[in-house]
Write a structure and sequence with these properties.
By secondary structure, the protein is of the alpha+beta class. The protein contains 14 helices and 17 strands. It has a single domain (4-474), classed as Amidase signature (AS) domain (Amidase signature (AS) enzymes).
């Protein structure tokens, strides 16, 4: 019999609405799973069981009273430890904030609660979300859901592992250089990077820096879409936010894959990727590309991608962390120091050139999507590696220039403000989860999600391409 914590979010919400599943039963099941697994995997880092049960009882009372229920009513939601939840410790993975307990929710968490979601647990992150390996000096490392000795990726590593293990039906993530897509791929779950402004971020330090976005994670496209509907909002405090956020339907439509023009790339022409991972991607593509109307090997011009990314990454970290570097250097981890110092070395001329190059890059991507509806690429360049290893230092014998270079597959879409969805596609040559990303132009979020939903159904027909389940769950 399926345990309540292993139900899909959509199914759990349906049963709650029909009074066939109590929010209390669901919360108890999630708390039990956390108790069984968290010591090994370290995905949940802050939890108040008394408060969680109190929220669940209040949700149950509303159901029994016949109240109008929100889209997330009664569903436990894991919150990434980069967002403030009233009453729960929020550290951003940093020693600077190791004792911080916010008194109010941030805007995204408030929207989750307003939709009936139960914001009950904080999921682990690298310090300030810097890096694709979820480990920090406050809580330690989060282990991969399929092998706790390996990395969960990052920065939404705790969220991805919590979902894969059934600790929660939904989890919030965020994404700059693949921060929710790579963990989704490494742990066999789904993660969606929305276009900037779809999920507003009024609380970030610099509103005009658009690269980092908040998005949903789940165990299916339909599940994460449920969370996205709660996250959608128009907030004038975010300069990228618009009323377009209200144009999303209650349910996704069925995409006709045979009508689609799809571009397929293994490496965007410039991104490092392990030879075995590239081979697996090409093999998987051969298994499903026939469902599309057009499936061409193609990509946009990425000749200056790395320089664009490095300039804007440095500028972003300079803006967010220069004061912390000056006051608390000894309390900061290597990645934050490295990025911020690179930002401090930028000249005004380099920053100006970075904006010029990015604009030209974005125009090339826009022109590319006049010929194609979506692009499909691998999500991660390597198989999960030991979490003691801070980052990937070399691929195919080639030394990586810095700790972010191995993430180029996921920052290629980011630097054009694309929306992108990572979905599971079987396992790799080491038996670890393998993911692909579906990329669309800015503003085509609904299309990407509907394509992802249809492709998810197609991939589920074949054992080699369906979503894997962690051994701790499958037995």
């Amino acid at each position: 019999m399926t345990k309540a914590c292993d139900l899909s979010a959509v199914e759990a919400r349906r049963l709650i609405g029909q009074k066939k599943l109590s929010p209390v039963e669901l919360m108890d099941s999630c708390l039990e799973r956390i108790g069984e697994t968290n010591k090994t995997y370290n995905s949940v880092v802050s939890l108040d069981e008394k408060s969680a049960k109190k929220q669940a009882k209040a949700a149950e009372k509303a159901v029994m009273a016949g109240d109008t229920l929100g889209v997330l009513h009664g569903l436990p939601v894991g919150i990434k430890d980069l967002h403030s939840v009233a009453g729960l410790k929020c550290t951003w993975g940093s020693l600077i904030f190791k004792d911080n307990v916010p008194k109010v929710d941030d805007s995204m968490v408030a929207n989750v609660r307003n939709a009936g979601g139960l914001a009950f647990a904080m999921t682990n992150v690298p310090e300030f979300g810097a890096g694709a390996n979820t480990r920090n000096r406050v809580y330690g490392a989060t282990g991969n859901a399929f092998n706790p000795k390996l990395t969960a990726a990052g920065s939404s590593g705790g969220a991805a592992v919590g979902l894969a293990l059934g600790q929660m039906p939904l989890a919030t993530g965020s994404d700059y250089a693949g921060s929710l897509r790579t963990p989704a791929a490494f742990n066999g779950v789904f993660g969606f990077r929305p276009s900037p402004g779809i999920v507003p971020s009024p609380d970030k330090i610099a509103g005009l820096i658009p690269w980092g976005v908040v998005g949903p994670m789940g165990r299916s496209v339909e599940d994460l879409y449920l969370l996205l509907r709660a996250q959608l909002d128009h907030d004038i405090a975010d300069p990228f936010s618009s009323a377009d956020a209200y144009d999303f339907p209650e349910a996704l439509s069925d995409a006709d894959l045979s009508d689609l023009r799809v571009a397929i790339t293994t490496d965007f022409g410039v991104c490092p990727i392990d030879k075995q991972i590239a081979k697996i991607f090409k093999s998987r593509v051969q298994q499903f590309k026939g469902v599309f109307g057009v499936a061409d090997e193609a990509t946009w011009d990425c000749h200056d991608l790395h320089e664009i990314f490095e300039i804007h990454r440095g500028l972003s970290y300079l803006t967010s962390h220069q004061d912390k570097l000056a006051k608390h250097r000894k309390m900061l981890d290597t990645n934050v120091i490295d990025n911020t110092e690179r930002g401090l070395k930028l000249t005004a001329a380099e920053i100006g050139r970075g904006f010029q190059m990015q604009h030209a890059y974005a125009k090339r991507v826009a022109a590319f999507f006049e010929d194609y509806d979506v692009l499909i690429a691998p999500t991660a360049a390597v198989s999960p590696f030991p979490h003691e290893q801070l980052y990937v230092t070399e691929i195919n014998g080639e030394k990586m220039e810095n700790y972010t270079r191995w993430m180029a597959l996921v920052y290629a879409p980011t630097m054009a403000l694309c929306c992108a969805l990572s979905i599971p596609c079987g396992v790799d040559h080491k038996g670890m989860p393998f993911g692909i990303q579906i990329v669309g132009p800015k503003g085509r979020d609904r299309l990407v999600l509907e394509v992802g939903r249809a492709l998810e159904a197609e991939l589920s027909r074949t054992p080699a391409t369906r979503r894997p389940v962690p051994p701790v769950i499958s037995g």
